[in-house]
Each structure stands twice: as structure tokens, then as C-alpha cells.
Amino acid sequence: MQLGRRTTRSLIAAAAVAVPLLAVAPVAIADSNPLNDAITLSSNGFCVGHIDFELIYGPNTPYFGLISALHGIAPCSVEVAVNWHNLDTGATGTVRQQIYGTGGTQIQFDPGPGHITGTLTTNAPHKPGSFDFQRTAP
Question: Which residues pair with 50 in a beta bridge?
């Protein structure tokens, strides 16, 4: 497949934005926010963006949100793995969800009561996100 001049320029411009974003992103980890976005490229299309873990109904429900903002040359999608660990009970788990473009989706997992930590990773080049919260209800 041969790309046109306009498409080639768009790809070069997107790469020029994405590469420095991913290269510099790890220095921003010193944020005191316990919910840090993952910064990622897409696994298809040519897109870059972030994915945020949200306590959409509070920490005491098994429902959580993934809020995404992926922008670029569509289609923009990536698989997100939510890797969680209950530090009090030792329970661990992973929930996977395909994310498309910009928007939100609900995920479900039940870590039990305790101190919950975790990471957001993707199946594309990324800077992992993290979360940390206290859960008091089963």
C-alpha cells in the first residue's frame, strides 16, 4: 500500500508528538495523586492518548471506570489490563478491556475490603498508570 503525501506528513507529525510524550512521561511519576493516568499509543490506527481509572460509584462497589482520550488517525483502540492487588488479603487479579477512542467504559472486579493498589497497562507502547484506594465494604 502506498501512502499519499498528506497521509505521510500526518503520520510524521503524529510520531513527532507521540515519541517525546512517551519518552518524557516517566519523569511525571512524582505526582501525589493516587490515581495516575496511563499514557499510551493505540494498538491499531495511529493514535496517542491517556486512560484514567475512576472510582465511579466510590471505592465500596465492584464497579470501576476506564475513561479514555485517544486521538489520532482512526480507528483508535487499545486493550487495557487493570492489574489489582489487595495488600491486606494478598488477593490479586487482572481485568482486560478493549478501549475505543474517547469515552468511558465500566469494568467490574471485587478485590474485597482492604488497601487496593494496581496498575493500568496496555498492549501498545505506554507509560503505566496506577491507582491506590482503601475499600471498607466487601
Answer: 39, 69
Exposure pattern of 59-68 as b/e (b: 16+ CB <10 Å)? eeeeebebbb
Rounded Cα–Cα distance for residues 42 and 48 (Å) = 6
Q: What confidence tens digit (pLDDT) does each residue in 47-57 have?
A: 999 999 998 88
Task: Decide: helix, strand or coil at residue 9.
Answer: helix
Residue 13 phi, psi (nearest 5): -65, -45
Task: State how beta strands 102-108 and 38-41 pair.
Answer: unpaired
- pTM of the predicted structure, to 2 decimals: 0.74
Nearest to 69 by CA among 30, 40, 43, 95: 40
Report which DSSP code applies to 22: H
